[in-house]
Each structure stands twice: as C-alpha cells, then as structure tokens.
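Troubleshooting: if your tokenizer reports a length mismatch, compare against these two reference records.
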Amino acid sequence: MHLDIQDLKLPLLPILPCYVHYRKGTFTNYNPATGGVLCEVANGTAEDVELAVQAAKTCLNSEHWGYRSTGIQRAAVLRRVGAVFERRKGEFSVLDSYDMGKPLREAQADLVCVWYVY
C-alpha cells in the first residue's frame, strides 16, 4: 500500500458528532524510528475538550446513539464503524507503523487485535 506520508495533514479534531477545526495551532509529529517529520497534528486545547464534552452530551441525547436509541440502532452504528475500519485497515497499519516507529507487520498484528476487541 502506498501512502504519501509527506502530504499527511490532520487539521481536524475527531469530536462527536463530527470533526471540527482545531482552535489553536498544531504540533509536529515525528517518526521515532527516523526522527523525520510525519505531519502536523491539531493541538487540542481546553476549549477543544469542552467542545468534545458538549458533543458527547449531545450524542447521548440523540436518536442515533444514546438514551433514545435502541440496541439495534447502536449496533448498526458499530457495524458501520467496523466496515470503515476493515476497508481502511491497511492505511491505519501504515500510519501506526510510522507514528510508533515499529515494523509494519507488528502494526498490522496490533490492529487485528484492536479490531477484534471493538
């Protein structure tokens, strides 16, 4: 799998129910195996944490996930998440390998375990 790590930018923070633009700056993420720059990552702030807490509360009161949803609805969401993970597991493995500085084969094995748990 080819992934152009030089162009990787993560300008968004994963805050439910959507991704939002970060509030203040980024930090540089380095490959520990090479010391090379991987990418710039959003620098989450206290304000971003507050947004995440509010989003989680909104989610708990939604019909898609939370008190007003059924087990069947929540299971459908988890199946969709699993399908995305399955489809993109190669990308996740490459990113994990670069980010952690570990061999790709080890990153792939780790992700299989994570996928099984969730």
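Reference record two:
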Amino acid sequence: MAWSSGALLVTPVLPLSRGDLVPAQMCLEIPAFPPPCPRSGPDHEALPAHAHLRFYTAPPGPRLALCFVDIRRFGHWDIGGEWQPGRGPCVLLEYEQFRENVLRNLADKVFDKPICEALLDQRFFNGIGNYLRAEILYRLKIPPFEKAREVLEALQQHRPSPELTLSQKIRAKLQNPDLLELCHSVPKEVVQLGGKGYGPESGEEDFAAFRAWLQCYGMPGMSSLQDGRGRTIWFQGDPGPLAPKGRLLLL
C-alpha cells in the first residue's frame, strides 16, 4: 500500500505529492460502529474530524476504527502502490542513500539550474517542497539562484579533519550542518512539532505552532521571486546570479 507519492508508513510522516513532508495522524483507535458511517448523530461525532479514510475492525472484539486524518486533503492512497517511478531515496528515512544519490549524480543537467529549483527535483530531493527549500537555504545563507552544482560540489570535497576525535566530529557536524544534512534535519523538526498547526486538535485555522517555527517562508521582511517553474521562493538578501530578471516582492 502507498500513501500519496510514498510507501505507507505507520509513522507521523506523510510524503505529499507536491514534495513537502508534513505531520499527519495515521493511527487512531476509537470506539466505532458498522459502516457505512452516518453523516450525523452521536456515532458520527465519535470519529475525528477530517477522517477521510476509515478502516473498521470486524467482530469479535471491540469495534474500532483506523482513521487517516488529513485536514488539507493532500494525501491519497494507492493500493499496492510504491514510490512514484523515478523518486529518489527519502530525505528523512533513507538519509545516507539520499546523500549518496545526490553527490554521485552531479553531472545531471538539473544541477545546471539554480539550487532552489534543483531542490524540488524529487529524483534527488524526495520530500523537499516549497517551504522546506526556503527554510533550508535561509539557514545556510545560500542565495536561492546560485548554480546548484557549484553549491553541491563543495560537499564532495568536504571531509572532517582526521585529527579530530569522534565527539569533535559529531559536534562540528551538529554545529555546522551542510545543505544535505539540513535536507534531513529540517523536515525532521516539522515532524517533531507533533502535528501542531496541521492536526485537528488545534483547529483548522490554528497554524500558530507551524508559523512560529518558520523563519523565512512567507515571513515579514523576506523577499520573493518566481523560479523557472513558476513556484515562489522566499529568501533574504541577494537572490544569486541566476535570478530571473524583474522586481523582487517584499512582504
């Protein structure tokens, strides 16, 4: 089975068809009732809001429901599905394979493009979408329209000093993560929000926790431009040498 564009995983992570990874509630056991589900009444109220897909247990035993809760209706389910053809390793669950896949394929023509556009190519950055790319580039102060290959080639040459102890190497990595490491750790931060800003327990309009986490995407004082694919990229400072001609939009 597969959810959206990724394999079904009983974890709080939902891979979305557009790339972004967001928290989602997958497993929820509650008292249930025989399907079909009534649209009103006390039985209906026992189910969580936005439970767009429900599996019911059969007797004997207590009546339970396994519900997929998705306020924004981004997810979908494919029976027997797997990753879409051509998608690379998951940035969250397959980090080492993801990193290797990027660095060994830098000759691919996608890396001739600006780094902000390359980050949306799911062959190499499976799970990175619009808000994640903005947050990752902002933290590293990388102009979004720098050539992707020039940004990433530096990671091939970077090796920690052999004179450092293991603890020093770990500390240096945590204090100075590179772009590919942030492609893993930044989505992980969103998952660790525990669904806040997305979950029904906060209310449909309550995105306070998620907005508090954002540093760049859609934030006051940031600039924005449309990339070559028509997607808006948010950033601060110089957009980089490959920026499209035209005025910057400021919030």
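Descriptive notes for reference record two:
- Residues 95-250 form a domain with the Helicase, Ruva Protein; domain 3 fold (CATH 1.10.8.50).
- The radius of gyration is 21 Å.
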